[in-house]
Each structure stands twice: as C-alpha cells, then as structure tokens.
Amino acid sequence: MKAQLLTLFSFISFYALSQSTINITTSGGSFPNEKWVSITTAVDGGGTQVWGQGDGSYSNGAGLINQDISIAPGTYYVNCYDQYSDGWDGTTISVTAYGSVIGDNGGNSPSDPSTVDASFNWEPGSPELELEASFQIIVPVPPSCLSPSVLSASAITPTSVDLDWTSGGSGETEWELEYGASGFTQGTGTIVSINSNPYTLSGLWQILIMMFM
Q1: What is the pLDDT of residues 88-100, one digit of tens each?
Q2: Distance CA 155, CA 175 (A)
C-alpha cells in the first residue's frame, strides 16, 4: 500500500505593510567617495532626517550606493552632498519606487557652484556648505496586490508539507493560502492566514488519497 498526497496550493491574497520601499542608486562620475545622500522632510536638508547614508550621521558611509529603503508614503527631499563642494563630478542619482522613477535631480549630476568649502573636509557643523542639490520625491503607497511567486514544497509527508515562496516585493508580512485536493476550484478550498515564510502546512489527512497496489 502506498500513500500519495495530492494537493494544489494557490495564493489568493496577501496584506501589505504601511511602509513603502524605494531604491536610491548613485552611479558613474569620478571621486565616488566624496558623495553622501540623505532624505529629509524639508528642502535643503531641513526638517527631520528620515534616512541617511551609512549609519545616518553626516558623511558616514560616503560613496556610491544601490540601496532599498523602507519609508512611509509621503513627500520628502533627497539631499546630495559632496565632500569638496565641487559638484558630483558626473555622478548621477536615481530614486525609484515599484519600477517608476520618482526623482533624479532632472537627470543632472548634482552641482551648486555657489557653495564654497574652504577646508576641503566634511563640515559636520555646516553641511549646507557641501550641499549640491535637493530635490523633491513623492513616495507612493505600496501596491495593494503583488502576487507571490516561485512557490516550492519540500519535506512532504502524508499529513504536512513545508512551503516557501518569493514575496511580491511590497513589504508584505501576511498572506492567505488556499489549498485542497488536486483539481479543486479556487474559492472552494481551505483558507488559512499565515505570517511566516517559510511555512509548514499541517493537518492534511483529509485530502490524503490512498492508492492500493
């Protein structure tokens, strides 16, 4: 006698976090270690700093970046600093969210010839001396329904299976899983709410088909 577990798993919905995900990429140009970026609630580095390169303190972790950032939807300003206050030497910046560009300083390498930095060092007490550009971004609300993908099953037993998948990319932490015997109609299966990935689905005895040989 052999037991064969026949199941069909189908993700039908999930819930997203209130936070959005954006990406900041700086690339090209010369003297990459002179560049530092922050995000604030007001133009020219004003208001509250909600994110800063490195550990967030001025000039820490200076250099080119390609970084995803979790941030609440809203209006912010991206501030571009240069250690020598001589422009970004051709380096460009792009801020994207869910496949769309939400800010890039007009496509120009940040440069403000009116600023003067006599010491040629980072100026923690006067960062405005090294500010090359400040541009607005509007962070959108995350998409409400990006489907998970690449579902895989392992450690299959007659009564349980380990599942894992690739999330949709909008910061989701909860999903609904519908399952049933092979060939079931979606909407008629058993639905469970889950908040971990991977996840062990158990209690499958009711869809076990016994095959006698």
Answers
A1: 999 999 999 988 9
A2: 21
What tokens were used for 98?
Answer: 């869910």
Whether 35 and 63 share a structural domain: yes
- 102 and 47, same structural domain? yes
* Token output for 90: 């051709």
| Tokens coding 92 | 């460009």
**What is the Cα–Cα distance from 27 to 89, expressed in whole angstroms?**
11
Q: Is 125 helix (H, G, I), strand (E, B) or coil?
A: coil
181-199 as b/e: b if 16+ CB within 10 A: eeebeeeebeeeebeeeeb
Alpha-carbon gap, residue 131 to 138, rounded angstroms: 21
How many domains does the chain divide into?
2
* 3-state DSSP assignment of residue 24: strand
β-strands 74-82, 35-40 pairing: antiparallel
pTM: 0.65
Please list the residues that pair with 22 across neighbouring strands: 69
